[in-house]
Structure formats: structure tokens, C-alpha cells
Amino acid sequence: MDEPPEEADRDTFYDQRIAYFREHGEPSHSIEVIFLLMFNIDGELYIQRRALSKRHNAGLFDKTVGGHRIAGNTIDYTLLYEVLRELRTPCRLVAEEGFDQTLLLLRDFINVQALARVVDHPVVKLERVFNKERIAIASRAHLMFGIYNGPTDPAGKESRGVLRYSLEELEELVSRAPQDFTHDLKWILKNYRDQIVYFINRIHRITA
After folding, report:
1. Whole-number Å distance between alpha carbons of 20 and 29
2. Looking at residue 52, what DSSP letter applies?
3. What is the model's pTM?
4. Nearest CA to 77 among 87, 67, 64, 63?
5. Contact 138, 124 (CB under 8 A)
6. Which of 48, 83, 125, 174 has a CB 3.0–4.6 Å from the CB of 91, allowing a cystine?
């Protein structure tokens, strides 16, 4: 069962989910979130190292950007807000049918503004690690791929840094030390690998 966009502060939100999971052994109502994987023009993925101060998944390698949709905010605004907060660059959500054309037009400006498109809208149950305790949280995700070719300057409290990896390098690292990566990122790599390869090839074709 879905519930309205989240209004509670993050600590209250997670306290409620943890309590429900401990009592029932399954996630509570799903919430609406964004999952963003960002690429540069070389096809490398931007991977975020989560800050040690984060409430969950502290210190783990994660997708580029994620966040909850707050009541009253659109998905476009949620994406813009989260990318500005975590990478300090604006990001524009572009419809699939206009993405190639928009990227071709703005390819000389993607060092100062990111572009993103929606890939899928999966409903998922993924684990978060809270002080070594694994809690499953249900989400209605807006999975997006984006392109950005500028510097990254993550906010200090949000991230320990942003690293760049080729898909093959990232998969090798995950296979060697899966415990160092979030369930979110591992799930995306496993279930959307073909779409990732297609998007990388698409970037190369348009920006060549």
C-alpha cells in the first residue's frame, strides 16, 4: 500500500520505518523516491561515498543521488533539489523523446548543468543498514540516468566524496567487496545493466 509523499523529518521518518519493520518483519507503506545514476561524456559513473555521519548506509558507496519526494514537491523539483544539495550543480529533467535533441543542443554546457531522463518506475524493497542492523524499506522509485561533465563539490555532511568509475571497474569492485556498496546501487547494476550500456553508447554517439 502506498502512502502520500513524506512530510516528516528524516529522523522521524526512519524511526517509524525501523519500528514497523522490527514489529512486523516487513517494510511499511512504500514511499516515493528518486534514484539517479549520473555519467560523464566518457561513460564513467559518478559514485557517491556516503558520509560517516549519515543515519543509514554510513560510509558505503552509493548511486550518485537519491532522495524522498516531499509533499507538495514535484519529481522535477525533487531532482533539482537533491542534485543541488548533493553535487551543487543544477539538473534538468528531460522527457525521453527529447533527450537526444536536448543533449545535442546543450553538449557544450553540460559542464555547468546536468541533464537527466527517467528510465523506469520500479516498486522495490531494499535494505538500509542502521548501526549494522538491516532494515528493508519499500519505495516507489523514479529511476533516472543523467549526464554531467563538470566538477563535483559535494556538501560536506552529505558525502565523503564523489568518484568516477567505468561500468566494468565498478562491477569488479562490487564483486570483490559487496559489503562496501549499498543495496540500492547493487540492485540497479544487476537489474539495469543493459540500459546502462545502452545509455553509455548513446552518450558517446551524441557527444562525439
Report:
1. 10
2. T
3. 0.92
4. 67
5. yes
6. 83
Length of the chain: 208
**pLDDT at residue 102 above 50?**
yes
Average pLDDT for 87-104: 95
Each residue's pLDDT tens digit, 131-140: 999 999 999 9
- 97 pLDDT above the threshold of 50: yes
Question: SS3 for 18?
Answer: helix
> 184-190: long-range contacts (C-beta < 8 A, 24 or more apart)?
184/35, 184/62, 184/63, 184/66, 184/126, 185/47, 185/61, 185/62, 185/63, 187/124, 187/126, 188/35, 188/37, 188/63, 188/143
3-state secondary structure of 208: coil
- The burial of 75, by beta-carbon neighbours within 10 Å (0-12 exposed, 13-18 middle, 19 or more buried), is given as middle
Q: What is the pLDDT of residue 154?
A: 62
Q: Which residues pair with 139 in a beta bridge?
A: 31, 124
- Helix then strand count (H, E) for the chain reads 6, 9
Residue ranges of domains in the chain, CATH in brackets: 10-207 (3.90.79.10)
DSSP state of 204: H
Record the cell numbers describing residue 121, joined without a space. 518506475
144, 35 in Cβ contact below 8 A? yes
CA distances 96 to 23, 29, 200, Å, are: 42, 29, 15
For 21-56, how does the pLDDT look when each residue is reduced to its tens digit (9 = 90+)? 999 999 988 889 999 999 999 999 999 999 998 889
